[in-house]
């Protein structure tokens, strides 16, 4: 029934050719993914610097000052 509308051998040949084209053109598409430490993922991730050294961050809880004038407002980073 479906072969009435679609030529099956041509469909599979064109599908394979399309997949090969996508595979070979996307092979060099290496993207940098920037991951910033958050309180939720600080214990889960390891980072590597430009020299190839691996390191981790450790979170430290600090008490807030009672004087609100000492608090700084940091804008959202986009």
Give structural attributes:
78 residues; mainly alpha; two-stranded antiparallel sheet; 1 helix; 5% strand; elongated; transmembrane; transmembrane helix
Walkthrough of the structure:
The protein is mainly alpha-helical. The protein has one domain. A two-stranded antiparallel sheet has the order 1-2. A hairpin with a 5-residue loop joins strand 1 and strand 2. The mean pLDDT is 87. Keywords: Membrane, Transmembrane, Transmembrane helix.
The overall average pLDDT, rounded, is 87
How many distinct beta strands?
A: 2
Protein structure class: mainly alpha
Net shape: elongated
Beta-strand content estimate: 5-15%
CA-atom Rg in angstroms: 26 Å
Query: Into which percent range does the helicity of residues fall?
Result: 10-25%
In total, the number of domains comes to: 1
Number of helices: 1
Order of secondary-structure elements: HEE
Uncertain residue ranges: none
- Cα(first) to Cα(last) distance is 54 Å
Structure, briefly:
This protein is mainly alpha-helical and 78 residues long. It has one domain (2-58).
Blueprint of the fold:
Elements: H1 8-26, E1 47-48, E2 54-55
Antiparallel strand pairs: 1-2
Keywords: Membrane, Transmembrane, Transmembrane helix
Transmembrane segments: 6-26
């Amino acid at each position: 029934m479906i072969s009435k509308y679609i030529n099956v051998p041509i469909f599979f040949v064109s599908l394979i050719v399309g997949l090969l084209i996508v595979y070979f053109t996307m092979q060099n598409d290496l993207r940098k993914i920037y991951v910033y430490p958050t309180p939720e993922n600080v214990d889960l991730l390891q980072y590597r610097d430009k020299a190839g050294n691996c390191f981790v961050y450790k979170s430290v809880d600090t008490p807030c000052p009672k004087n609100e004038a000492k608090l700084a407002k940091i804008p959202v980073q986009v």
